[in-house]
Amino acid sequence: MYRVKIGEKEGVGPTKASKLKYGNMISGGEVSGKNFLMKETFEYAKERVANKRENETIDGFRLFNNLLSSQPMAFNLFHPPMLLLKQDPAMVTLAVRSVFRNFPVFDVTEIGLEFIPTPIENYTNDKSAMDAYIRFVDNNGGKHIIAIETKYTDVLGVNEASRCEEQKHMLVDTGLFTEEFEELLMGGKVKLTQIYRNLLLTERYRIKEGLKDSYSVVLSPKEHPSPKRKSSR
């Protein structure tokens, strides 16, 4: 509906090499910036794609041309507060505090997008990334991070990554789970799916950076069946 409203024709997808046209794809988004709500966000996206670092998984074609991708969703949601944080940090802190009412947000200090802590071997030793993150301090100066996974229409990953024994041991070492869960995980009865990998990355970052606490959040439309199913377990 948005594509039709802005007068864009159907583009091919889901990859650049695809031949099929889909209603959620546009063409030439790398030039037009039509997948972003703000010109500044489009410029930031171009900069990130042009200067993509080792192990980063930013997909430029999807970012610029897929209207229903969670990657541009993250950029559209979190780049504006990144800009506002430089101009009016009190306003950003108020906004974050109002959304995450159970978190001890005193001052927001940093907001970022598509973040893979490096060197990766110091964290989860894979390409797991935070779609977005918010760092803040509590009223005692304790440092915290909110790691955010954005989901728009795509499914919260249910498949297990290959060669993930090291990550399973890391997850057990966090001490967050019961012995029963640990046995199921190491025995292959529970898969190291995306939701566990996200949690692991957040916790490893907390440990390595010496933070007081960390929070792993999945942000999606409330009608999205995948996160709702996961969060109910």
User: What count of structural domains?
Assistant: 2
Approximately how much beta-strand content do the residues carry?
15-25%
Separation of termini? Answer: 34 Å
The biggest sheet amounts to:
4 strands, mixed
Give, in spatial order, the strands making up the sheet with the most strands.
3-4-5-6
The tally of beta strands, per DSSP, is: 6
Spatial extent as radius of gyration: 19 Å
What best-fitting shape do the alpha-carbon axes yield?
globular
Helicity level: 40-55%
Mean pLDDT: 92
Low-confidence stretches: none
Order of helices and strands: HEEHHHHHEEEHHHEH
Tell me the number of helical segments per DSSP (H or I, 4 or more residues long): 10
By secondary-structure content and strand pairing, the structural class works out as alpha+beta
Which features would summarize this protein structure in a list?
233 residues; alpha+beta; 2 domains; four-stranded mixed sheet; two-stranded antiparallel sheet; 10 helices; 6 strands; 15% strand
